[in-house]
Recover the amino acids of this structure.
């Protein structure tokens, strides 16, 4: 059984650019959630994908978007990057909500916007 | 509004001393409460959840709905307990999806 993996581990982008972060969910997990963790803060929920559709969203603007693929892997896309988007982005996979399951986190992608 | 408050950024204790990491929450329904831990250079992982009512690595946490608290306790701290601890809340089942609302975290430092 493999854990949640995220790529890349680090990247630097310029303000105004677009970025795509990737996440492979844990084997058997069909639900993927994305979180943003700013320095000194706890993770903040961005959105969740289940069966390739977004089924929940936090307080983030539309320039944060995502995809989930048939193999349950996921992408987080951020357009028009702002300096405040600099953060650690965490992906978490789990079984569906009704199964009352644990969320397993990846190691994160550190995004720096300059 | 859903909010989790961890009032201490840093808690420093000596090995063998009791530990209590405080967590208070605000939520109008019946949430699930969790403690997540992040050891140095490791990923965030679940430590315990209130519905399990179990002790993990000597840690326990009791949900007090009257005080809206979910404090994490351990009677005798060990050096390997040094880590970042996050309290988290998940809204009730009727939301249709699971999200975690995290506090800002407490760094526990256990000195020899």
């Amino acid at each position: 059984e493999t854990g949640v993996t995220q790529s890349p581990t680090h990247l630097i982008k310029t303000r105004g650019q677009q970025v795509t972060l990737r996440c492979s969910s844990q084997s058997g997990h069909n639900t993927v959630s994305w979180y943003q963790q700013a320095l000194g803060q706890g993770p903040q929920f961005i959105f969740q994908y289940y069966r390739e559709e977004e089924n929940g969203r936090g307080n983030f603007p539309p320039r944060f978007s995502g995809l989930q693929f048939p193999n349950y892997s996921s992408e987080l896309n951020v357009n028009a990057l702002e300096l405040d988007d600099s953060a650690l982005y965490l992906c978490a996979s789990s079984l569906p909500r009704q199964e009352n399951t644990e969320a397993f986190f990846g190691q994160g992608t550190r995004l720096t916007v300059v | 509004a859903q909010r989790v408050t961890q009032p201490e950024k840093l808690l420093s204790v000596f090995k063998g001393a009791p530990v209590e990491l405080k967590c208070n929450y605000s939520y109008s329904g019946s949430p699930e409460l969790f403690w997540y831990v992040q050891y140095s250079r490791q990923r965030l992982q679940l430590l315990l959840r209130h519905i399990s009512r179990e002790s993990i690595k000597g840690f326990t946490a009791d949900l007090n709905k009257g005080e809206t608290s979910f404090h994490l306790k351990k009677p005798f701290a060990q050096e390997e307990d040094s880590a970042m601890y996050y309290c988290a809340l998940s809204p009730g089942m009727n939301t249709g999806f699971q999200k975690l609302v995290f506090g800002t975290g407490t760094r526990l430092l256990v000195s020899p």
In short: Chain B has a mean pLDDT of 91. Chain B is about 0% helix and 40% strand.
